[in-house]
Design goal:
Elements (H helix, E strand, L loop, with lengths): L1 E3 L2 E2 L3 H8 L8 E5 L11 E5 L4 H14 L3 E8 L13 H11 L5 E4 L1 H11 L5 E5 L9 E7 L4 H15 L2
Parallel strand pairs: 3-7, 4-7, 5-6
Antiparallel strand pairs: 1-2, 3-8, 5-8
């Protein structure tokens, strides 16, 4: 399928399947609306899916859930909670679909610029994949910050405390 003359649309599902085993903690996958910009950092790859936002998010969630080596911290734009249907027709329906999709996931809601800054900072060292969808409602991007699937934040904290205690002996 062609996006523009000479540009071929990649198979986004194949891309997710290929990159997920390579990705680890600190990598990001973003399921973005259609106005999300192509970022200029070399570590950020942007592809156009041609698929719906919920479909892409469901596929990414499923791939992460099926993976043993990673889990995701999911970030949502705080602005999405305040958008009115009068300004963005369909936003209420989208919020309902998104809530259903993420009902068993823990999400973190932050202002859009804070999430983008966090992604940009991380992309200085680690790779990110942005999958653009055809959704035309603002502030609907879903940010998956990958984390280690077999090591918890609590275990890391205990390790660091043990190391600090050992250093003081």
């Amino acid at each position: 399928m062609t996006v523009a003359p000479g540009i071929t649309k990649p198979d986004w599902k194949r891309e997710v399947k290929a990159l997920l085993p390579l990705f680890g903690h600190r990598n990001w996958i973003v399921v973005a609306d259609s106005a999300y910009p192509a970022q200029s950092r070399p570590g950020i790859e942007t592809i156009v899916s041609g698929a719906g936002q919920i479909e892409v998010a469901r596929t990414v969630l499923g791939a992460i859930a099926a993976s043993k080596h990673v889990r995701a911290n999911i970030y949502l734009d705080q602005e999405l909670q305040f958008i009115a249907d009068a300004d963005a027709p369909g936003v209420s329906r989208y919020r309902t679909q998104l809530a259903e999709l993420l009902k068993s996931a823990k999400t973190i809601t932050l202002p859009h610029e804070q999430i983008i800054a966090r992604l940009d900072q991380t992309a200085q060292i680690f790779r990110a994949l942005i999958i653009k969808t055809g959704l035309t409602i603002p502030y609907t991007s879903i940010f998956f910050e990958l984390d280690c699937g077999y090591w918890s934040a609590e275990a890391e904290q205990r390790l660091r405390q043990s190391m600090a205690a050992s250093a003081t002996k």
